[in-house]
Sequence to fold (337 residues):
Amino acid sequence: MIKKNVSLQTFNTFGVKVAAKLFAQAENEDQVRNVIQSDEFRKHDNLILGGGSNVLFTKDFDGIVLRNHIQGVEVIEETPSSVVVRVGGGVVWHEFVLYCIEHGWNGVENLSLIPGSVGASPMQNIGAYGVEVETVFHELEAIHLQTGEIHYFNGSDCNFGYRDSIFKNKLKGEYLISRVTFQLSKDNHFNISYGAIEQELEQMGVKSLSARAVSNAVIAIRQSKLPDPKEIGNSGSFFKNPIVDQAIYNKIKGQFPEVVAYSAGEGKMKLAAGWLIDQAGWKGVTRGNYGVHKKQALVLVNYGGAKGKEIYNLSEEILNSIHEKFGVSLEREVNIY
Fold:
């Protein structure tokens, strides 16, 4: 079950050519336990991998990579107006979204086409177009990597924040998220106020709203701005939108009146990282076989054959540039290994 010297190129959406010293794939909880209780796992550094859409490998991984490939979608509870559904952590996120739409379950349509797996969705608290996963989250099951025990986490246990959860800080590297349970609605209430969804629906000639129509609009918007990882290596948004105090926002707005920002509550403003990077002149910059995407400055790309270290160094240049120009510290959304 545990293999040696396995290429990770197809297991990371950047398509970086690196290898894992040891590699295993788990299809169920028992297989996870078999791996984590092995000498190989206990004696080496380990990395839990899902869809590989939020990682940048800068070198070979000198340890064991355990890929979560747990599948399955099952209804736990259902009423005329809602459904509670339990999903394997290894299910592809977008396939789950499409499954919900087919079954008339609403709430995740705004999160269409986000790369990655279901298990990573609460870890990152993924979000797009005015919706974050915490709004539909019910609970998750996670296997403790030291004991093999299954622990349950509800919403407050997860300590959700902007693209953040307890699994990215306090409990980082301690669990594998095996299954996630969502509470979805059967009512036709849709969030179309964010971004260009309403405009896209109008262009598509949609007369009556549905989850499928909203999903199709989101897909069209994302495809117009973001490169397909199957064609150009990338991990989606590489940087988080920074949240700053109102005073810092006012100072930036004084110098750059056209700054793009949104209220983040409690005297805070969320700046559009893509706008900052674009204004600093990085959009479309190409360095040989890697660079910044020409349509979306938030996305760093591997055109083929780039090293992860090169992409990382480019991100470092961008961070320094933004700090110098705006006095704002950007954070990477992507995990670096």
